[in-house]
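Repro:
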Amino acid sequence: MLFKYILLGIFIYFMFRFLFDFIIPVVKTTKQVKKQFDAVREQQQEFNQQQQSQPSTKFTSTVDKDDYIEFEEVK
């Protein structure tokens, strides 16, 4: 009978250690990482919205034939 209580006490002790030393820190870390990912995602969305709201200017390059240098293969 006493042996049963000792084993139950040891079991409860290890369950509390497992809970407070492993499960709770993992849950806290997961929440923190999720918040950081959400913040990065929000920043990315804001950046994309800013890029879309700005008028896009396309640069067209005009190449004159005088500016072109022919390629000669060197052996």
